[in-house]
Structure formats: C-alpha cells, structure tokens
Design brief:
It contains nine helices and four strands, in the order αβααααβαβααβα. It is mainly alpha-helical. It has one domain: Rossmann fold, CATH 3.40.50. The strands form two sheets. A two-stranded parallel ribbon has the order 1-2. α2 crosses α5. Pfam families: P-mevalo_kinase. This is Phosphomevalonate kinase. InterPro entries: P-loop_NTPase (IPR027417), Pmev_kin_anim (IPR005919).
Length: about 180
C-alpha cells in the first residue's frame, strides 16, 4: 500500500490502519515506541503475542471498536476516499459495509508463501495461523483481487485503483455541482 499511499492526493484520500489504535494504546500503556509498533519490524513482533489477546477481547465486546477508532484517529471523515490497509477480519468488512454501504469496495491482495518468504516473511506458529491472519481466507466475494508477485502486477493494480479513485472523485464533484 505504500506505493499507492505515495501517489494519492492527500487532499482527497487517507490511508486508515485499523491496527493503529491498538498499537497506540499498547505504546501508551507499556511505554513502547508507537512508530516501531506500526512497522513490520522485529520490535513489533516482540509485543504482538501480547497485543492479540487484549485486542481480541475488545473486539468480542464490540467488533467495530477499532474500525471506529481508526476512522477517528486518521480524521477520515474529512476525506472522500478512504483506503483501509489492514483489514483482517470479516467483522471489519461487516462494520464498514453496515456503516457505509455501497460506497465500500473490497480489494484482496494475495502473494504466495514462496514470494512472501523471499521478501523476508517467516511463518510463526501462534501468530500466522490465528484468526487475525486467516479469517478472510475463505471469503470469496471481492470487488478486486490483486496478485502481488511482481512489481509490474502491483504497478498496474495501483494505476487501476488510482483511475477508479479519480472516477469516484469526478462523479462526486459532478453530483455536488448539480445541487
């Protein structure tokens, strides 16, 4: 998502990370480095197993808690285009669809384990086999599926998404011009 984030006009679009409010809370409570928790570093991995049970308990009480918190944290309501970069659960999709209906477009980005390993990913039992990583594996209804095996594929997908975003903005501007 970094390439897409760099190429988006910040006036119109925002990248929302549902994990950000979790990591912000954890950083405050435990005195940790928030920026390091947001990264894909070994620093984050040290605390990930602790963050999961707490965040799961919070989600069980209110499945939309982190979706709402992330929308607020990133001031998303000020922008017409939102890209949620880290949806991991069916309930996250459910919350956005319940609250924003037909405006929601779902995009699944996939890469095979061999590709992921070549990029430094290492399977960790107790993390990568949990609901937080696997809950969307059986979802078949996506507006777009992107295979992230090569730079060319990703570049084309980003261009397609940018074009769709621009079309949405144009439709929105036309709608407001007629009122």
């Amino acid at each position: 998502m970094t390439d897409l984030e760099i190429s988006l006009d910040k006036e119109y679009a925002v990248i929302i990370k549902i994990s950000a409010p979790i990591k912000e809370h954890w950083a405050k409570v435990k005195g940790l480095d928030y920026e390091q928790l947001l990264s894909s570093s070994s620093y984050k991995e040290k605390y990930r197993k602790e963050m999961l049970p707490w965040s799961e308990k919070m989600r069980n009480d209110d499945y939309g808690i982190f979706c709402r918190a992330a929308v607020d944290m990133f001031n998303a309501r000020e922008k017409p285009i939102w890209i949620v970069s880290d949806i991991r659960r069916k309930t996250d999709i459910r919350w956005f669809k319940e609250n924003f209906g037909a405006a929601i477009k779902t995009i699944k980005i996939i890469a095979g384990d061999d590709i992921r390993k070549s990029r430094g990913w290492v399977f960790e039992e107790g993390i990568d086999d949990q609901e937080t990583e696997c809950d969307l594996d059986d979802v078949e209804e996506w507006d777009l599926i992107i295979t992230n095996h090569s730079t060319d594929e990703v570049d084309k997908a980003i261009e397609d998404m940018k074009q769709e975003i621009q079309e949405c903005l144009t439709r929105n501007e036309l709608k407001h011009a007629h009122h």
